[in-house]
């Protein structure tokens, strides 16, 4: 059970990283910043933030389940 919670947490953190553009170069980030509106940027950051938070929650839950077991 805790293994599934850990995998879900890691997957959510990876999705958060991909959606925030962690793997892009400086020039790609600059071009994205210049072509996006403020609303699109805020929406993307909120999406990434909530995926990251939920991933952390799942990882903490898996650690607690592992310690209880």
Please explain how this structure is put together:
This protein has three helices and no strands. Helix 1 (2-20) runs antiparallel to helix 3. It is 87% helix and 0% strand. With 69 residues, the protein is an all-alpha fold. The longest helix has 31 residues, at 38-68. It has one domain (2-68). The protein is elongated, with a radius of gyration of 15 Å. The protein starts with a helix and ends with a helix. The relative contact order is 0.24.
Q: Can you write the helix and strand succession as a string?
A: HHH
Number of domains: 1
Unreliable parts? none
> Per the principal axes of the C-alpha atoms, what is the gross shape?
elongated
Helical content (DSSP H or I, runs of 4+): over 70%
Please work out how many helical segments DSSP would assign: 3
Largest sheet: none
Average pLDDT number: 91
Protein structure class: mainly alpha
Beta-strand portion reads: under 5%
Radius of gyration: 15 Å
Q: Care to count the β-strands?
A: 0
Q: Termini separation (Å)?
A: 10 Å
